[in-house]
User: What shape does this take?
Amino acid sequence: QVQLVESGGDLVHDGGSLTLSCAAYGFVFQSYTIAWFRQAPGKEREGVAAIRPDNGGTTYSDSVKGRFVISRDDAKNAATLQMTSLKPEDAATYYCAAGVRVPSPLDRGHYGYWGQGTHVSVSA
Assistant: This one.
């Protein structure tokens, strides 16, 4: 059974840091592009970071570039999102996603597997 399980969401202060984790089960993790998306209340789900298989190439949205770092550990079937300098506008539910053919890494339409999300709150 395919599963993506996120963890690590929490309430942090403006300027704080947080690391999210994604554990994968039931598919060949090392063959998939892994991405993090987020969705705030009343807003569309947006891609913030993605990491490709093989060469580990990364893509970031402009809103998080320089503050977030995505990584993967294929031996552990896991990925992380390190978030620093958090702002109130980063508050959202964060989702881990996996896709096998992903020409546009931050386009949610390319991802077939999704987790249930973990919530990040940022207090001003």
